[in-house]
Amino acid sequence: MIEGKANELPDFQVFQTVIKYCLFIIIVPVLSFFVVKILIFDSILKLEAVTSSVYSAVVAVVVLHVTLGLYIYRAYSESEKAPTKPVKKD
């Protein structure tokens, strides 16, 4: 292997990880919006349509921030795990 690239993940594995997190960041907040709106705010609490939509949007934004935080945490922890090669002195 090339000396500088020995500790890096293969490109395809990095691509798969990024795609998984992108889908996770897109799908989970949208699902949380509709699940919370339909099951909690419309069915159980019987709120008006606009009110339940606003509260559901707030929940979706919070979920979005949590998923982004998980992605950032994963990226940060991955960079700390990679061992650095000592610099050779001639």
UniProtKB/TrEMBL annotation:
Q: Which stretches are annotated as coiled coil?
A: none
Q: Which InterPro entries match?
A: Vma21
This chain's function reads: Required for the assembly of the V0 complex of the vacuolar ATPase (V-ATPase) in the endoplasmic reticulum.
Biological process (GO) annotations?
A: vacuolar proton-transporting V-type ATPase complex assembly
Membrane-spanning residues: 21-41, 53-73
- Any one of the GO CC terms: endoplasmic reticulum-Golgi intermediate compartment membrane
Membrane association type? Multi-pass membrane protein
Key word Transmembrane helix present: yes
Subcellular location as annotated: Endoplasmic reticulum membrane; Endoplasmic reticulum-Golgi intermediate compartment membrane; Cytoplasmic vesicle, COPII-coated vesicle membrane
Similarity field: Belongs to the VMA21 family.
| Chief site of localization | endoplasmic reticulum
Which UniProt keywords are listed? Cytoplasmic vesicle, Endoplasmic reticulum, Membrane, Transmembrane, Transmembrane helix
- In its UniProt entry, what is this protein called? Vacuolar ATPase assembly integral membrane protein VMA21 homolog
